[in-house]
Amino acid sequence: xxxxxxxxxxxxxxxxxxxxxxxxxxxxxxxxxxxxxxxxxxxxxxxxxxxxxxxxxxxxxxxxxxxxxxxxxxxxxxxxxxxxxxxxxxxxxxxxxxxxxxxxxxxxxxxxxxxxxxxxxxxxxxxxxxxxxxxxxxxxxxxxxxxxxxxxxxxxxxxxxxxxxxxxxxxxxxxxxxxxxxxxxxxxxxxxxxxxxxxxxxxxxxxxxxxxxxxxxxxxxxxxxxxxxxxxxxxxxxxxxxxxxxxxxxxxxxxxxxxxxxxxxxxxxxxxxxxxxxxxxxxxxxxxxxxxxxxxxxxxxxxxxxxxxxxxxxxxxxxxxxxxxxxxxxxxxxxxxxxxxxxxxxxxxxxxxxxxxxxxxxxxxxxxxxxxxxxxxxxxxxxxxxxxxxxxxxxxxxxxxxxxxxxxxxxxxxxxxxxxxxxxxxxxxxxxxxxxxxxxxxxxxxxxxxxxxxxxxxxxxxxxxxxxxxxxxxxxxxxxxxxxxxxxxxxxxxxxxxxxxxxxxxxxxxxxxxxxxxxxxxxxxxxxxxxxxxxxxxxxxxxxxxxxxxxxxxxxxxxxxxxxxxxxxxxxxxxxxxxxxxxxxxxxxxxxxxxxxxxxxxxxxxxxxxxxxxxxxxxxxxxxxxxxxxxxxxxxxxxxxxxxxxxxxxxxxxxxxxxxxxxxxxxxxxxxxxxxxxxxxxxxxxxxxxxxxxxxxxxxxxxxxxxxxxxxxxxxxxxxxxxxxxxxxxxxxxxxxxxxxxxxxxxxxxxxxxxxxxxxxxxxxxxxxxxxxxxxxxxxxxxxxxxxxxxxxxxxxxxxxxxxxxxxxxxxxxxxxxxxxxxxxxxxxxxxxxxxxxxxxxxxxxxxxxxxxxxxxxxxxxxxxxxxxxxxxxxxxxxxxxxxxxxxxxxxxxxxxxxxxxxxxxxxxxxxxxxxxxxxxxxxxxxxxxxxxxxxxxxxxxxxx
Length: 945
Fold this sequence. Notes:
Structural class: alpha+beta
Largest sheet: 4 strands, antiparallel
Strand order of the largest sheet: 3-4-2-5
Number of helices: 29
Shape: elongated
Strand content: 5-15%
């Protein structure tokens, strides 16, 4: 069978797929192509005006982007309800995350200068906590809440002055001329604020003494703005500061440890909340200022790091922002390189890049505007409309899918223009416009069909319960809708505007006509040989593909639910929070852990405080299960007394426990004082020995729930009939696992059905559509098996499974995006079959689309692999190429993005090179041969093949 490269006469009607026999659709195609090509200046200018207008109207992406996981779960989840109870009963202690500041000398004892850094940081942060509490009190209408907040502010100022005085005493050990004594002077503002607050509370004697002290330290202190006028937005989430100098809690923070000290900042924000970025930056600045004031000469060898759940979340968010930036840059470079290799012409490179740039510009502005509108309409009208939120990582998906899909759309259209120009040389601009119009009509249905499989597939994520899934899918679908519209209008208009110059320098002049060199390129000959082999030996081709894909597909099926929810392992080991965690784990085991908070509500209040203490002590002892490090309650606030350790009269630390039980902090933290929960709501914190993100921690939570369920059903228990709830990191992870696995189970049948319906509507052949769906499902499991094996080998013993987001997004994107190339091939095969019959149409369709679809696959794979550029950039930094990664960004690697980028790249390569190139045309050829053998004649092209 020879290779015939001539193309059939152009047929503007589409007798296969959607539009079959529809005259109004044919009229739409003709009218649209005429309008776009005839009025191309208006199209180009119109899109530019749209972009400028949206840029002016829309808010910035960062101003509306959100982050977090727990906050976007359904309100019915147990951890969310538990947090609501906790906030209602303990508004003063609404702690959701924390920052741990560790100062340590791993190989020596701490020096006086080291302690001076900790004291300086502690006094400043306690003062700022007082400012936050004071400002919040001024906005509170409840007199009791106002008094509580003012008392908290006064307590924070007292502690800050206590640290200031200790720092002053410590500095006497240095010479009078030592720079440290000049740089770490007394903080007059603390005394001034305490004096002002004392005056507000009616203690005029204290007020006069503090104001006098402040003016002695700083004669200009009266010019200081009042607390209400100070900027505290960055630290608004700060609700508590614990130092090692606290007379009761200090022992847990290294008060007597020779090598390390801790400062703990309690936050009201979720650990990965967007606002934590500003707070972390502020704390880093305070720490850096204190180190600079002391002098690095005195601090040589001192390690100061930030850790804790909020620091981890901050690093994850910084890594997300860095990943977005890296993905944008690497994607652009890769696409530029691929387009240069494919076209070797500046205009054919510039047109797709301009189209993608316009699409991305308009998409980002549109999405930000829609997100702002959807969030504000519920506030303004009260309508229960689910908001369309955008997240930091959403931009990564928008970048890779828009750049990949948008380039594919342009490549297919431009390839058809070149093909038409080869067959019908153009001499005039109007002739070029007619050529572009014919090309537009020829590719329109295929582009629309391929785009809509992706748009509908992603849009169906709206039916997820997890808000990140529910919003991300439709947002990307909206962006792809904009991209296909821009590609079908801006791209042909740009080609018309450039005329024959668009194809320079491959364009040749011959006999006064402009045409593309019609010599058969090497890649067309290669695809011609492959197409002959596939259509002549389809059974062998299909068997080889199935043999290659079946083994990893079985692995993917087995491992599809083996995923990791360990957010603590999401970052590289060099990230700041993980460095800090290593130090803390060495000197303070479990000090930086995230406890499980249990909240119990009795029907009636406790009769006496002692009755409450006894009830908490009985329950605490029962909660000491295997895997529990400590249980903190009103009876044992620090968790120092597990079963078997009794508090004797002469116990060394007995005084601390008795003082703690009567301490104001303990009562406020463990027993609710707010109506209607006063004296009948108690809180118990359980600290696990395992990583709070791990499966053993989840199993421990289930065991603890069983203990509590038994307790509230026991008539002899003081907690009989009580309701209990729970919250914290581990409950949040358990709920996240439940809701995402539920969504995944729903999406695994909903998306394939939706994509199948789109294929059925656009292609119109049920059996072929079923084969297309089966092929991409096989591709998904093959990809999952290969990816799982690859990262299990890379991570070795640390591998717990792929990140939980990888199988989900891999499934949705491969099922939706993976159909693009199949649709491109199928629609061209249908077109060729009209002229040449079934087998020859399959051969020609594969040959003519092989090169361009492979180029599209390379572009899409390039955009996906850009998501995994972090390790390469870190490797370049290790080689001394410093521009790739700044020192501050070392270790900020999102393992989930790396895994997903690699998985999607593998999936696209398999779809492009195996499924579309061999398996699908082989299956179509087998069907055609069977039909021909059954009928004994060539099957008409309008019947099902």
